[in-house]
Every structure is written in structure tokens, then in C-alpha cells.
Amino acid sequence: MTQPTDVWGEHLRTALFLAVSGVPVLPLRKGKVPFGNCDACAGGACGGRPNMKSAGACTCPAPCHAWAAATTDPAVITSPAWMAAWRRAVAVAYHPSGAGLTVVDLDDAAAVAWARTALPPTRTVETTRGEHWVYQGVMSSHNAVRPGVDIKSTMAYARYLGPGTGAVTPLPDAVRALAVKEPSPIRPAPHGLTVPAAAGKAECPHRTPTFLERGIAMAEQRITEARSAVHATVYRTFLAVLSTHGRCGCLTDAHVAGLFAAAQAKGETLRHCTDAWSNARTRLGL
Fold first, then answer.
1. Which residue among 42, 76, 80, 234 is least enclosed by CB atoms within 10 Å?
2. pLDDT (tens digit, 9 = 90+) per residue, 195-251?
3. What is residue 57's predicted lDDT score, i.e. its pLDDT?
4. Are residues 74 and 15 in contact, defined by beta-carbon separation less than 8 angstroms?
5. Rounded CA separation 3/28 (Å)
6. Rounded Cα distance, 256 and 234, in Å
7. 265, 176 in Cβ contact below 8 A?
8. pLDDT in tens, 250-274
9. Are 102 and 132 in contact (CB under 8 A)?
10. Nearest to residue 161, comparing CAs of 20, 62, 18?
């Protein structure tokens, strides 16, 4: 449904103001969610991912691909395709990390009360049920880091609800620490990795130290050099390592710790690493 001119016009003015300030913006449709991919981009046909996590090689002029559509280009924001979206938009959103920001989304009064005792003060923006605390700095996004608390920064969007009050302060370690989950029952280098050799094999064919060390070093480098799709790169790398060394007992705790360290240096959490490792083992039947 098309919004009244005064409504979508205000959204457009807000978006242009933010864009000039260096904040990448995108329109939100009914339900306060991003617009879905257009027909040309459906199913990843354009080179982007169907789940709208990345715009990939897409050149579509529409506000596709969720947070990845966010832009500061006034020519794009006022293009015909975007104007059609603004006429249906119910809110303006922005990509926090694109502006060098992290938003701690406090969803209710209890979460706000916790933040006031646990986090350093910063710019505060009132929301329908709670508050957004905006910090200067970028980190990975995480949902439900504690009851009523989400972190929105990379690969995420946040509703723009006004300038808020207070000065933006540097992203503190207390917020980064929220993303560090307690270790899951799956150890980063579980004993189960040492899988007995298949029947009839008296000696592991991969025990040549050079072969193993070179393979692990290449795997770590592949993760380190990832420029996008880090989650997928980590999983595929873990899968490749396990497909080569997972059944013969070559891998040690030190090898797995090195792979996890490379992934965490790219912003992955320990929980993401253990989940990716577990999923790769499951797929290979280990």
C-alpha cells in the first residue's frame, strides 16, 4: 500500500539527511523489514545470495538484499526504483557498521536497567519498548546475547528513530564481551577428532609433517584472506580440512586451535566456530 505523501516524503528527507552525514540508509516495508529481492534477483540469479546476506555482483537498481542495499548515494536514493519503495516504506533503516557504529538494541525495560549498570553511557535513542545505545566502533552482529539484548553492526540494519541524546562514545570491551558465548559442550578441538583409521590401513597416509602443516597453513590463509562471506568461507575451509584429515587422526588440538584463531580474527565467535566445525563433521559422517 502506498503511504500518504507526507509520510513517505518525510522518510525520504530523513534518508537523504542521513546519507549526506555518511550513514548508509535503506527503506523498510510493512512489518518493518527490508524489501525482498526483486524478480531479477530472486534465487540468487543476480549473483547475490537468496537470503539477502550479500549484494554480491548484483547491479540491480532496486533496494534489494536487505542491509547490503544501504547506500549514501543521493542519486540511488532518489532513483525511480527507490522512489517506488519509499512510497511503500513504513520506516527508514541504516547499516550501523557502514557508518562505523554498533547499536546495542535493548528490547525492554529490564534490558535497559541492566545496561545502565553494566555498560558505559553513550548516545541513547528511545524505541517503542526500550532503547538503542549507539557506540563508535564496529563488531560482528549477534542476536540474544542476553535476555532482551541484540548487537547490530556488521551485516545488520537498525531502524532510525531520531538523533537520540548524549554523545557517541567508543565501543567498549564490555559490549564486545557480550558476543563471546560460553563454550558449548563441543570443545574447539574435541577428542572425537581422532578417528580410528579405516580397517586395513595400518598407517595414516597423511602423517607426513610437511603435508599436514602446509595444509593447515593454507587453510588458515584462506580464512584470513576472506573479503566477504566469512561464515561460508570458514565452513567450507573446515569441511576441506576434515575431509582430508578428519578420519586418520592427523589433527591435534593445536591445529584446530589455529583454525579457530584465524576465524575469530575475522570476527567469528567461538560458538560460530564450534558450530561450523560440528556441522562439517556431521556432513562428513565423522
1. 80
2. 333 334 435 555 556 667 777 778 888 888 777 677 778 888 888 888 877 777 677
3. 56
4. no
5. 12
6. 12
7. no
8. 777 777 888 888 888 877 777 778 8
9. no
10. 18
| CB atoms closer than 10 angstroms to residue 270 | 17
Query: Are the C-beta atoms of residues 131 and 43 closer than 8 Å to each other?
Result: no
Neighbour count for residue 222 (Cβ, 10 Å): 16
Residue among 210, 274, 282 at smallest CA distance from 246? 282
Please write the tens of the pLDDT for every residue from 113-162.
999 999 999 999 999 999 999 999 988 888 888 999 999 998 889 999 99
Cα→Cα distances 252→86, 140, 178, 195, Å: 55, 28, 29, 12
E strand intervals along 149-250: 149-152, 158-159, 169-170
How many CA atoms does the CB half-sphere of 19 hold within 13 Å? Answer: 20
Q: How many degrees, rounded to 5, is the angle at CA 155 between CA 279 and CA 163? A: 145
- Bridge partners, 123 (sequence order): 134
Q: Which three cell numbers stand for residue 124?
A: 541513547
Q: Write down the residue that cell numbers 511503500 correspond to.
A: 88
Place of cell 548516545: 123
Whether residue 33 contacts residue 91, with contact meaning beta carbons closer than 8 Å, is answered with: no
